[in-house]
Structures are given as structure tokens and as C-alpha cells.
Automatic annotation (TrEMBL), chain A:
<keyword id="KW-0408">Iron</keyword>
<feature type="transmembrane region" description="Helical">
    <location>
        <begin position="164"/>
        <end position="191"/>
    </location>
</feature>
<protein>
    <recommendedName>
        <fullName>Cytochrome c oxidase subunit 1</fullName>
        <ecNumber>7.1.1.9</ecNumber>
    </recommendedName>
</protein>
<keyword id="KW-1003">Cell membrane</keyword>
<keyword id="KW-1133">Transmembrane helix</keyword>
<dbReference type="InterPro" id="IPR023616">
    <property type="entry name" value="Cyt_c_oxase-like_su1_dom"/>
</dbReference>
<feature type="domain" description="Cytochrome oxidase subunit I profile">
    <location>
        <begin position="14"/>
        <end position="531"/>
    </location>
</feature>
<feature type="transmembrane region" description="Helical">
    <location>
        <begin position="398"/>
        <end position="416"/>
    </location>
</feature>
<keyword id="KW-0679">Respiratory chain</keyword>
UniProtKB/TrEMBL annotation, chain B:
<dbReference type="InterPro" id="IPR024791">
    <property type="entry name" value="Cyt_c/ubiquinol_Oxase_su3"/>
</dbReference>
<keyword id="KW-0812">Transmembrane</keyword>
<feature type="transmembrane region" description="Helical">
    <location>
        <begin position="180"/>
        <end position="199"/>
    </location>
</feature>
<feature type="transmembrane region" description="Helical">
    <location>
        <begin position="68"/>
        <end position="87"/>
    </location>
</feature>
<keyword id="KW-1003">Cell membrane</keyword>
<feature type="domain" description="Heme-copper oxidase subunit III family profile">
    <location>
        <begin position="1"/>
        <end position="200"/>
    </location>
</feature>
<dbReference type="InterPro" id="IPR000298">
    <property type="entry name" value="Cyt_c_oxidase-like_su3"/>
</dbReference>
<keyword id="KW-0472">Membrane</keyword>
<dbReference type="InterPro" id="IPR013833">
    <property type="entry name" value="Cyt_c_oxidase_su3_a-hlx"/>
</dbReference>
């Protein structure tokens, strides 16, 4: 067997992209594309973060005194859009791009050129959105949900205005995502290594698979709505114009039919990351592997029948509100299964509180909090009361920052040695974690009492009695902004001159840890033959039949 | 270790797993078509909601649509799905001439369909901006027409490729996917025809 094995840690067998210029080319290597996605989306994350701090800067005092109100509206629209379409989606696609082919034992994605094309649309989306600052009237101001009739107003009369650029950007982002989804689904279904049945796939792959299925069947609805809105603005059709017999609520249906499931598109891969990280740093097999794998698919399915919970106050009839309240609450069942499985996985384990583990645990705690407020919001009587207030903003920021962004940090630290071949600085990682953890809670926790007291969202000024919590939230946002500095510093320095990483620095189980760091160009010299499930801590059987896998045999 | 694989077979098993590129492409294309069909379904859902809830569904002065000419058009489009199937079969039997004849016939039928639709559009008394009815009518027929046009373009490409030697010796992903796309466009039209013309 040894004559066909892969030499772990051998430097002579691979030529990974060592030159940074590689990352500016039209590469078809899924690993290069993955890093291109990650770095590009992180740049936009910084842009979206600066927008957020401008918003919080405005809200530190009750008066509207820092920026004018039109600019403020543009800011919250662009903050939401950039964070969703240019940070969370592409960063997770980047991570999945890097990991999925390796985790299933493939040499690349099914369609490498399509993959590269999908990536290069992301900077185009960014340029379109940023250029809207320079057209008359400024960027779109109707929020990231772009509800008509607000979004169909065109006071400047220009055909090229912020809202039109916004719609084009969203459409291109949609095309890119569909291309990505076709690629991921084909790759996962058709290119798994011999022996890797569906129930031997790592949970991250399950999560990506479920998320991409949502993309395939949800995104077209948003595309349909966006096309109709674009026609209303540019050609003068009347789909959503109530003065000409159109129905603006129809747009909300198109929008939320995709945009609620979109939350699961970003949260499912984060669940996958949790599932990869907890067994490693607790040194235990995953608890309830099959149930958790299936629960991802269940969440994907239920996601298609919950969208009306965003429209409880849009004139939705009572019976429909009841129906969607029940289906929404049902999401907590498969989600709860996952949470219990993670807790059970950590329970009684030999926990190592390294940076990735800290981030994953912090994100899990904040996710549980977000889940509780989520169940509150799914309930019609509560939602009618706090609708359009900061309670909602607090809830989804616990999801999108507390869980998704923190989970993303966990992933970046966990796979950093694999991707770069270098170790990061653990001390700076911990500084980053504590700043981010405290910052997140300081920023978003005060939004809950603010919302319960009735402070509306999307406003540049507010009544003086809301000042205390607003000041806290603003301080939190600046702390959160600062917390990225040790991260950037750590990543850059470590990437350039960090300690060389071994193939398997965390003593983890999984195909990606059996190949050198960074992996060779085509991942595997010999396609692995899978003979076991992915989380065999404490088992004596190896993961594959043909790769050297002494790391797996170390029964712990 | 998995008892079904003997150590001496490992190398063989690993190499047998050459990935099947044609199969991947076809699978990916079907996944894409499924996703594409959701756009149409979204428009159909919009049409049904608007039709059943609008107070002024038909624009003022409009009685309804003429059904005869679109019905003939429908028959031609549905028939063309069988014609392209014969083209595929001919290619499988290495009969390039037959393949080209049937493909040409499909293109002509598709083009006739587009011509028929253009004539219908030019005679209608309402436009794209005539309320939600006009909007939905032109959106649905226009978006479908765009697909018919794309289908004809794809057929033209495989038609030209058939004259270049060696292209269709093994594997016909281009041909099979074009044919599948054409059937897809056809099925969508049948639903569209029932929604717009039959259910007036």
C-alpha cells in the first residue's frame, strides 16, 4: 500500500500558488478561487463595516446631525446590501469552494471555468454598487429589501440611478450564485470519491449541499421580482404600482420567498463549520451525525414555506399568519436538534480553547440567543408589537454578526494553516475574539430593550429617552470595528512569516488534513478510497484505504 | 478496513474513478433547467394572483385574445419537439445527413413560431404598460420567446458544428442539452398557453 500513498508533508510533490500575483489571475483552481472569494468579500466586509459605523455615529445623539437624511438612507441600504451580497454569501461560497472538493476527495469542482466566471462577477457587483455613489441622486435608499412604491420613485428622472444600479447588481449577484449552485450540487452529487456515500460526507458538505439547493429554487423568485421591479422603474409597467392596478405586496412575496430562505443559505454552512470544529477541539466523535445531516435538508425544505412571517403587518389575512407562524416555529425543531448535537459533542470532551474553538463557542452562544428572539418574532402577537423596531435589528444582527461572521472567523482560523501553510498567532487571535465577542454584545444587545421600548429602525433621529442604549450600541460598533485590526494584522503577518504549518496541526480527522499544507495543485495524487465515516475520534479504523492516515489511527 | 476492497485492487479502484465529464455536464444542465423553471413558475404564480385579484384585469376596450392562430403555433412548437428527437436519433445512428435535415426542420418550425408571435404582438390593442394584464402578457410571452430564440441559436451552433469533422464522434452533450432545452421550452409554452389563452 505504501507505494501508492501520498507523502504527507513532503515538499517536493506540490506547487501551491506561492506568488500573491496568482490571486489576481483568472485561475480555475478551486483553492485559488476560494481564497479570491474570501479576500474580496473581506474587503467588502470592511466597507460595509465603515458604513455601519457611520450609521452608529449618526445615532450616538438623538438629533440628525452627522450626515444628511438622504445620505443616511443610502448608508443603511448599502450597509445591508454590501454585508449580505458582498460579505456573507461570497465569503461562505469561498470557504465552500476551498473545502468541498477536498472534503469529498475530488481534484476540483465539476465546472472549473464556470466557477471562475462566477467569482469574477463578485467584483463587478461591488463596482456597480459603489459607482452608485457617483450618479445623480446617490445610491439606492429603499433599504436592502427595495420595497415598492419607495423603490420605484425616481426623483432625478435619470434612467441610470442608484436603484437601477442596485437592481442590476443584485441580478448579477443572482446569476453568479446560480452558477455557483449548479456547480456545487453537481460536484457533490457526481464527484465524490469512491466509497464516499452520502452518509460518509462531512457535515460541512451536507450543509453546503442543502444551502445550494435553496439557492437553486429560491433565487429565481427574487430574480422574477427584480425583473418586474426593474421594468416598473425603467419601462413604466404597473406590476407593483397601486395607482395603475398593480400590487406592491406582490413584490414582498417575490422578495421574501427567496430572501428568508437566504438566511439559511448563509447559516447552514455556519452550522456545518460548527460541526467540523467541535469534534476536533473536544476530541470526540460527532454526536448524532445522521440526524444532523438530515436536519440540514429538513431546514432547506421548511425554508420554502415560512416567508410570510416577514409580512404579518402587510395586510396578510389572519389564517395565513397563523399558518406561517406555525411553519416558522417548526424551523426550530431541526435547528434545535443541531444545537443539542453540538452540546452533546462537546459534553465531557477534552476541550482545547484555541482561537477557532473560542469563536465557534462564542458564535453558538449568540446563535442560541438569536434563536430565542427568533421564536419570539415568529409569534404574530409579539411581531405585530415589535415590527419595524430595533428588536428586529438586534435579532438579525445576532444571527448575521454574532453567528455568521463570528462563525466565519472560526472557520478562517481553523483552516488558515491548511490554506496558507502557516500558523497564525494564537495570542492575537484571542485578543481578536474577546474584542469581537464583547463588541458584538455591546453593539446588538442594547437594540433589544430599544426595540421593546418602541424605537423604530431606519431613522436618523430619535426621542432623547432612547439615548442611553443608543450610546452603548454605538460604542459597541466602534469596538467591533476595532476588533478587526488585530485580525488583519495577525493574518497578514502570519501569512508572510508565520511558523510553517504541518499537514494536520489540530490532529483533526478529515480528508483535508491528510494532504500537505497548503494542498498540492490537484489535491490528491491518488483519489482516496473512503472506507469510514468522517468523525472517528477514538476509533482505530482509518478513514481511507489508500492514503497514509496515521493521524486517524491515533486513538484518543 | 473495508473488506470489499483488496489491497492489490486499491490503485485500480482509485483510477477507475475517472470523472465522467459528459455526465457531469448533463447533470449540471438539468439542475440549471430546474432552477430556470422556477423563474417561469414565479411569473405564472404572479399571473394567477393578478388575474384572480385584480379589479380591472383586461385593459379598457380589450375583449380577450384571439385563440386560433396561437393554437396553430402551439401545434407547430409541440411537433418540433418530436422533430428534434428524430434529429438526435439520427445522430446516434451516425446518420449526419438525417441529423441535419431534422435539425433544420426544427429551426424552421421554431422560427415560424417566433414569426407567428411577432404577428400577434403587432395586432394587439394593448401594450406592455397597459396595466398588470398587459405587463404579464408581454412579460410571459416575451420571456418565453427569448428562450425560443436562444434554443434556435443553440440549434444553429450544433448544426454548424456538425460540418466540422470529429465533433460528434463520441458524446453529444451539445446535442442532447439543446434537445432537452427545446423540450423544456415546449413544456413551458403548454402551461403558458393554457394560462393565457385557454383560461381567459
Amino acid at each position: 500500500m505504501t507505494n501508492i500513498s501520498l507523502n504527507i508533508g513532503s515538499e517536493s510533490h506540490h506547487e501551491p500558488p506561492t506568488n500573491w500575483k496568482t490571486y489576481f489571475t483568472f485561475s480555475t483552481d478551486h483553492k485559488v478561487i476560494g481564497i479570491q472569494y474570501l479576500v474580496t468579500s473581506f474587503m467588502f466586509f470592511l466597507v460595509g463595516g465603515i458604513f455601519a459605523m457611520i450609521l452608529r455615529g449618526e445615532l450616538i445623539t438623538p438629533e440628525s446631525d452627522l450626515v444628511d437624511r438622504t445620505f443616511y438612507n443610502g448608508m443603511f441600504t448599502m450597509h445591508g446590501t454590501v454585508m449580505l451580497f458582498l460579505w456573507t454569501f461570497p465569503s461562505l461560497v469561498g470557504l465552500a469552494n476551498y473545502l468541498v472538493p477536498i472534503m469529498i476527495g475530488a481534484r476540483d469542482m465539476a465546472f472549473p471555468r464556470l466557477n471562475a466566471a462566477a467569482f469574477w462577477m463578485v467584483p463587478v457587483v461591488g463596482i456597480l454598487l459603489m459607482s452608485s455613489f457617483f450618479v445623480p441622486g446617490g445610491p439606492a435608499q429603499a433599504g436592502w429589501w427595495a420595497y415598492p412604491p419607495v423603490s420605484t420613485q425616481n426623483p432625478t428622472g435619470n434612467l441610470i440611478n442608484g436603484q437601477v444600479l442596485w437592481l442590476l447588481a443584485v441580478a448579477i449577484s443572482g446569476v453568479s450564485s446560480i452558477m455557483g449552485a449548479v456547480n456545487f450540487v453537481t460536484t457533490i452529487v457526481k464527484m465524490r470519491a469512491p466509497g464516499m456515500g452520502f452518509f460518509r460526507m462531512p457535515l460541512f458538505v451536507w450543509a453546503v449541499f442543502s444551502a445550494q439547493i435553496i439557492q437553486l429554487f429560491g433565487l429565481p423568485a427574487l430574480t422574477a421580482g427584480a425583473v418586474m421591479l426593474l421594468l416598473d422603474i425603467t419601462v413604466g409597467t404597473a406590476f407593483f404600482d397601486p395607482t395603475q392596478g398593480g400590487n406592491p405586496v406582490m413584490f414582498q412575496h417575490y422578495f421574501w420567498f427567496y430572501s428568508h430562505p437566504a438566511v439559511y443559505v448563509i447559516i447552514l454552512p455556519i452550522f456545518g463549520i460548527f460541526s467540523e470544529i467541535f469534534p476536533v477541539y473536544a476530541r470526540k466523535p460527532f454526536f448524532g451525525y445522521k440526524v444532523v445531516a438530515v436536519s440540514s435538508m429538513l431546514i432547506a425544505m421548511v425554508s420554502a414555506i415560512v416567508w410570510v412571517h416577514h409580512m404579518y403587518v402587510s395586510g396578510t389575512p389572519g389564517w395565513m399568519r397563523l399558518l406561517f407562524m406555525v411553519t416558522t416555529m417548526f424551523v426550530s425543531v431541526p435547528t434545535g436538534i443541531k444545537v443539542f448535537a453540538w452540546v452533546a459533542t462537546i459534553w465531557g470532551g477534552k476541550i482545547r480553547l484555541t482561537t477557532p474553538m473560542l469563536f465557534a463557542l462564542g458564535a453558538l452562544i449568540m446563535f442560541v440567543f438569536a434563536g430565542i428572539t427568533g421564536i419570539m418574532l415568529s409569534s404574530v402577537p409579539v411581531d405585530v408589537h415589535v415590527n419595524n423596531t430595533y428588536f428586529v435589528v438586534g435579532h438579525f444582527h445576532y444571527v448575521l454578526y454574532g453567528t455568521v461572521t463570528m462563525g466565519m472567523y472560526a472557520a478562517i482560523y481553523h483552516w488558515f494553516p491548511k490554506m496558507t501553510g502557516r500558523m497564525f498567532n494564537e495570542g492575537w487571535g484571542k485578543v481578536h475574539f474577546w474584542l469581537a465577542f464583547i463588541g458584538t454584545n455591546l453593539n446588538f444587545l442594547p437594540m433589544h430593550p430599544l426595540g421593546l421600548q418602541g424605537m423604530l429602525r431606519r431613522v436618523a433621529s430619535y426621542a432623547p429617552e432612547y439615548t442611553f442604549w443608543n450610546v452603548l450600541a454605538s460604542l459597541g460598533s466602534f469596538l467591533l470595528g476595532m476588533s478587526t485590526l488585530p485580525f488583519i494584522f495577525n493574518i497578514l503577518i502570519s501569512w508572510m512569516q508565520g511558523e510553517k504549518a504541518p499537514a494536520n496541526p489540530w490532529r483533526a480527522i478529515g480528508l483535508e488534513w491528510l494532504i500537505s499544507s497548503p494542498p498540492p495543485v490537484e489535491n490528491f495524487e491518488e483519489i482516496p478510497i473512503i472506507i469510514n465515516g468522517p468523525y472517528g475520534y477514538g476509533q482505530s479504523e482509518p478513514l481511507t484505504a489508500n492514503l497514509e492516515n496515521q493521524a486517524i489511527k491515533t486513538a484518543e | 478496513m473495508d473488506s470489499s476492497i483488496k489491497p492489490e485492487e486499491l490503485h485500480h479502484v482509485s483510477h477507475e474513478h475517472e470523472h465522467d465529464e459528459e455526465g457531469n455536464k448533463m447533470f449540471g444542465f438539468i439542475v440549471f433547467l430546474l432552477s430556470e423553471s422556477v423563474i417561469f413558475l414565479s411569473f405564472f404564480a404572479g399571473y394567477i394572483v393578478y388575474k384572480t385579484t385584480s379589479e380591472n384585469w383586461l385593459p379598457a376596450g380589450v375583449e380577450g385574445l384571439e385563440v386560433l392562430a396561437p393554437s396553430i403555433n402551439t401545434v407547430i412548437l409541440v411537433a418540433s419537439s418530436f422533430v428534434i428527437y428524430f434529429a438526435e436519433k439520427n445522430l446516434e445512428q451516425k446518420n449526419l445527413v438525417g441529423f441535419r435535415i431534422f435539425l433544420l426542420a426544427t429551426m424552421l418550425m421554431g422560427s415560424y413560431f417566433l414569426y407567428g408571435q411577432a404577428v400577434e404582438w403587432s395586432q394587439l390593442e394593448f401594450g406592455f404598460t397597459s396595466g398588470t394584464y398587459g405587463g404579464m402578457f408581454y412579460l410571459l410571452t416575451g420571456f418565453h420567446g427569448l428562450h425560443v430564440f436562444t434554443g434556435i441559436l443553440l440549434q444553429l451552433i450544433i448544426f454548424i458544428r456538425s460540418f466540422l469533422p470529429g465533433n460528434y464522434d463520441n458524446g453529444h452533450f451539445g446535442v442532447n442539452s439543446t434537445s432537452l432545452f427545446w423540450h423544456f421550452v415546449d413544456v413551458i409554452w403548454i402551461i403558458l398557453f393554457i394560462l393565457i389563452y385557454v383560461w381567459q
